[in-house]
Structures are given as structure tokens and as C-alpha cells.
Design brief:
The structure is a single chain. By secondary structure, the chain is an alpha/beta fold. The protein folds into two domains: 38 residues; 156 residues, D-Maltodextrin-Binding Protein, domain 2 (3-Layer(aba) Sandwich), CATH 3.40.190.10. The chain contains eight helices and six strands; from the N terminus they run ααβααβαβαββαβα. Strands 2-1-3-6-5-4 form a six-stranded mixed beta sheet. Strand 4 and strand 5 form a beta hairpin.
């Protein structure tokens, strides 16, 4: 067979089948890409010295997405639990714990944190927490108990007992603070409203 005959044979018997397979592959790749992009985590938090219940975890992930509305229904929020464990005994390398925590924040792994007062004070000197007064809705909640940096910058706001109960928190005091490393202003403001308004 000559090249022309082979080409004609391919067109007659295989071209349609190959095009159908390619079309199906393109649809599958497009759908996979769409699913991955739509279920992308848009906002994430973690606890530092704070343990919450499974229902509380759902409230901070699925509940927050529902609170955001239809525009976020295909997005995902996550709460990593007490993943940043900071031991209180002397049997750890303090600098490695600090470095791991800072690298998680710098890598934008977490945009907000639920912290105990002790853990906030432990990391306060690193200047890694957002100035709450930069959020437009902060003044709505500024009457709540606030933890401030040594320079007086408001950086952590105490959650109400009602919210603590809703989250199933075991600790006495829980504070909300935001990472300063990336700009998530809109989501920070929404999370502040979500956790502070009852």
C-alpha cells in the first residue's frame, strides 16, 4: 500500500473513532480540572493549643461555606484541628517548633487561628498576627476582650461562651486571630462576622 492508500484507509475506518476518543478524553480532562478547581480550599484555619469537637470542625468548614452563600458552594474551607502542637514541657527544641509554625503561616497554610491566651503570648513577639483594626468590621466587635501586641495593636479577639459551646471547645478561653502573611481581608472579615455574631 502506498502512503496515500494508507491515509485513505485510516480516514475511512479509524478517523471517526479516534476523534470520538479524543473528544471523550478532552471532556474527562476538562471535568477533572473543573472539579479540582471548584473544590479548591479557599480558606483554612487551625488550632494552637485549642481542641474542638467534630461538630465544631464541621461548623468551621462546611458551615462556613454555607454561610458564605451560593458563590462558594463548590469551594471548600478547612479547619485542621489542633495541628500546631506547642509543647509546654522542656523536652523539645524550641527553635524547631517556632520555625515549623512560622513556615506554615508563611506558606499560607492557615489564614486564621484559634488560640489560647498562653499560645498567643508565646508567639506574639514574632509579629505574625494581623492588626484587627485593619478589618472594616472590627469596630462591631471591639467591645469583646482583645489581646494586643506589646505595641498595643489588637491582634486576637475572644470568642463568646456561646460560640465556644457551639465549637465544642474544651479550653476556658479561645481567641480568634488572623495570619499577617497574605491578604485575605474579605474572608477574614467574613470569618470574624461568622464567629462573633450570634
Amino acid at each position: 500500500m502506498t502512503f496515500q492508500q494508507k491515509l485513505q484507509y485510516f480516514r475511512d475506518y479509524y478517523l471517526i473513532k479516534v476523534l470520538i476518543v479524543l473528544a471523550i478524553l478532552l471532556v474527562v480532562v476538562w471535568l477533572a480540572h473543573d472539579i479540582i478547581q471548584n473544590k479548591k480550599i479557599v480558606y483554612a484555619g487551625a488550632g494552637v493549643g485549642i481542641d474542638i469537637s467534630e461538630d465544631g470542625n464541621d461548623y468551621l468548614s462546611d458551615g462556613f461555606i454555607k454561610y458564605l452563600g451560593d458563590g462558594y458552594s463548590k469551594k471548600k474551607a478547612s479547619y485542621g484541628g489542633n495541628v500546631i502542637f506547642v509543647p509546654t514541657s522542656g523536652d523539645y527544641n524550641e527553635s524547631s517548633v517556632e520555625m515549623a509554625f512560622i513556615s506554615q503561616l508563611e506558606g499560607d497554610m492557615f489564614q486564621y487561628l484559634l488560640v489560647s491566651k498562653e499560645k498567643y503570648e508565646y508567639f506574639m513577639s514574632f509579629e505574625i498576627f494581623l492588626d484587627l483594626s485593619t478589618l472594616t468590621n472590627y469596630s462591631n466587635y471591639s467591645q469583646s476582650e482583645i489581646l494586643s501586641s506589646t505595641s498595643g495593636t489588637p491582634e486576637a479577639i475572644r470568642l463568646s461562651d456561646t460560640m465556644k459551646e457551639k465549637l465544642g471547645v474544651r479550653q476556658d478561653e479561645v481567641y480568634l486571630c488572623f495570619s499577617i502573611k497574605k491578604d485575605h481581608r474579605e474572608m477574614n472579615e467574613k470569618m470574624l462576622d461568622y464567629l462573633m455574631s450570634e
